[in-house]
């Protein structure tokens, strides 16, 4: 059984991975749509000059901007994940020092106190 802070860590890591995937998916969809539009706009130029049109300057600029924004987002999420792992390791330390591993594996010697019997209330 995982310690509570490790359960929370697993949830947060899953959310961070999901955020990265969504960001990459959106950027990919925008770039794909832009590429299709550029292909349509290239047709008249390609028919005459056999080259891409000048509108490709904007396409490359926007693609670079999307890539940079995605990289910054991944960097921020990665930095937060690294910071989170530092916190998890710090929280693991007290459990490790007391002989209870962070996942409670091998804690067979640990015995919980028994609760006293409560008096019965109501009909007898």
Describe this structure in words.
The two termini are 41 Å apart. It contains 2 helices and no strands. It is elongated, with a radius of gyration of 28 Å. It has helices spanning 4-49, 56-97. It is 71% helix and 0% strand. It has a domain at 44-89. With 124 residues, the chain is mainly alpha-helical.
Question: Overall mean pLDDT score?
Answer: 76
Task: Report the helical percentage.
Answer: over 70%
Number of strands: 0
Give the SSE order as H and E letters: HH
Largest sheet: none
Q: Work out the radius of gyration.
A: 28 Å
SS-based class: mainly alpha
Name the overall outline. elongated
Query: Runs with pLDDT <50, length 5+?
Result: none
> Could you tell me how far the N terminus lies from the C terminus, measured between alpha carbons in angstroms?
41 Å
- Discrete helix count: 2
């Amino acid at each position: 059984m995982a310690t509570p802070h490790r359960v929370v860590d697993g949830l947060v890591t899953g959310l961070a991975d999901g955020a990265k995937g969504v960001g990459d998916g959106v950027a990919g969809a925008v770039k794909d749509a832009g590429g299709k539009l550029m292909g349509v706009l290239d047709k008249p130029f390609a028919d005459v000059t056999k080259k891409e049109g000048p509108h490709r300057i904007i396409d490359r600029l926007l693609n670079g901007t999307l890539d940079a924004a995605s990289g910054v987002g991944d960097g921020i999420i990665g930095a937060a994940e690294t910071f989170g792992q530092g916190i998890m390791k710090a929280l693991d330390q007290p459990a490790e020092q007391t002989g209870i591993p962070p996942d409670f594996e091998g804690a067979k010697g640990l015995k919980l106190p028994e609760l006293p019997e409560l008096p019965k209330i109501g009909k007898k």
